[in-house]
Specification:
Blueprint lengths: L1 H37 L10 E5 L6 H8 L3 H8 L12 E6 L30 E10 L18 E6 L5 E5 L11 E7 L1 E8 L4 E3 L4 E6 L4 E10 L9 H4 L3 H26 L1
Parallel strand pairs: 3-10
Antiparallel strand pairs: 1-2, 3-6, 4-5, 4-7, 7-9, 8-10
């Protein structure tokens, strides 16, 4: 009987140890699963601090199991005593993380080149400018070429077709690179006839009547050509026309009378 009790005692201890181990393992697994199922890591605040709000039934051990923050760290961070007494509803500090550094990058500013604006002279509304030149057409081509200068004395007339405008002027002489032609300012918009009277001693090499449509704000320049005139054979000579035929007749009579007087005197000497 004594040997049987001796055998059962160690066997009972072993059974109790196994049961206790199984119970402890199940409890720790249950707590760990509960912690993982219930707890969500809080979001750090603006300064990087992570807080936990104490709930009913919380202890430092339970918070450790939930957050994996050691009990010593919980006590140190929150200034608690060794007993780690907690008050429901208070926030305890679990740790800090480095707050992300916000780097503000300046957005590139688009640079727009200013548009270059070239001022355009604005003519007087409704008016134009007409210039007329008379050039010495040396080669007779009807086009002004290098070395052909302006002629003086051409009478220019500008008349609109409605009879409202009638202007006259005289062409100027000189080098076209140095002298401006005859110009008429403030010519109203409309249709015009431009004519020129060629001065004496010249013949025209271009037309002398030019129709022109004048538009407001424009400047028109018209070149007329003229060439020195030469007397053709058989053409009337003003110098010869100035001599009188009577003087020729008187001259012949005087010549014949002289010859007759000379003949009479010669005969008398001979007799």
């Amino acid at each position: 009987m004594k040997s049987s009790k001796t055998f059962l005692l160690p066997f009972s201890v072993i059974i109790l140890a196994l049961v206790s181990g199984v119970l402890l393992w199940s409890a720790s697994g249950f707590l760990s699963a509960s912690a993982q199922a219930v707890y969500q890591t809080p979001t750090p605040d603006a300064e990087g601090r992570i807080y936990y709000t104490v709930e009913s039934g919380d202890t430092c051990t339970r918070i450790f199991l939930l957050t994996n923050v050691s009990i010593d760290d919980i006590i140190r961070l929150n200034g608690l005593t060794e007993s780690c007494n907690l008050i429901i509803g208070t926030k305890i500090l679990l740790g800090t993380v480095a707050a992300p550094e916000l780097t503000q990058t300046a957005m590139p500013t688009a640079t727009i080149a200013p548009e270059k604006i070239t001022p355009t002279p604005t003519p007087e509304p409704g008016f134009a400018k007409v210039c007329v030149a008379l050039f010495n057409d040396l080669d007779g081509t009807g086009m002004r070429t290098q070395g052909e200068t302006y002629l003086y004395g051409g009478v220019v007339s500008i008349n609109d077709r409605l009879g409202k405008v009638s202007l006259t002027g005289t062409t100027v002489a000189g080098n076209p690179d140095e002298v401006d032609p005859l110009c008429f300012d403030n010519i109203p918009e409309g249709s015009y006839n431009i004519t020129v009277a060629i001065p004496d001693g010249f013949n025209p090499t271009t037309i002398t009547n030019y129709p022109l449509e004048v538009k407001a704000g424009e400047q028109a320049t018209i070149d007329f050509g003229a060439q020195v005139s030469t007397a053709a054979p058989g053409e009337h000579n003003p110098a010869a026309a100035g001599r009188s035929p009577i003087l020729g007749i008187i001259g012949v009579v005087i010549l014949l009378a002289g010859l007759g007087l000379g003949f009479v005197m010669w005969r008398q000497r001979k007799v």
